[in-house]
Amino acid sequence: GALIALDAETGEELWREDTSSPIYSTPVIVQNTVVVALPPGAESLLIVYNQSDGDEIWRYSLPVEE
After folding, report:
1. What is the domain partition of the chain in residue ranges?
2. Cα 7–57–39 angle (5° rounding)?
3. Which residues pair with 15 in a beta bridge?
4. 3-class secondary-structure state, position 9
5. Are 46 and 56 in contact (CB under 8 A)?
6. Which terminus of the chain has fewer Cβ atoms in its 10 Å neighbourhood, N or C?
7. In 12-29, which positions are buried (b, 16+ CB within 10 angstroms) versus exposed (e)?
8. Topology of domain 2-62, per CATH?
């Protein structure tokens, strides 16, 4: 999957971050960050990106039920 930020006025792509699997949820914007969840599988992740440039700030591995 990929997370893509677009300019609201022009539609121009501002940045893109490819993910290891499809994005599982609607991205959430919180205090200039973008939070996404990757689906359960080998591991399930929450990843937080900088809203302005797409740099990854942190990731958290969620427990996966077996």
Report:
1. 2-62
2. 85
3. 5
4. coil
5. no
6. C
7. eeeeebeeeeebbeebee
8. Thrombin, subunit H (2.40.10)
Residue 38 is predicted with a pLDDT of 86
Question: Rounded to the nearest 5°, which phi and psi values hold at 61?
Answer: -85, 120
pLDDT per residue as tens, the chain (66 positions): 899 999 999 999 999 999 878 887 899 999 999 999 988 766 788 999 999 999 999 999 988 776
- pLDDT of 66: 65
Closest CA to 45 of 65, 23, 13, 66: 23
Residue that the structure tokens 């893109």 belong to: 16
Contact call for residues 24 and 12 (beta carbons, < 8 A)? no
pLDDT at 40: 72
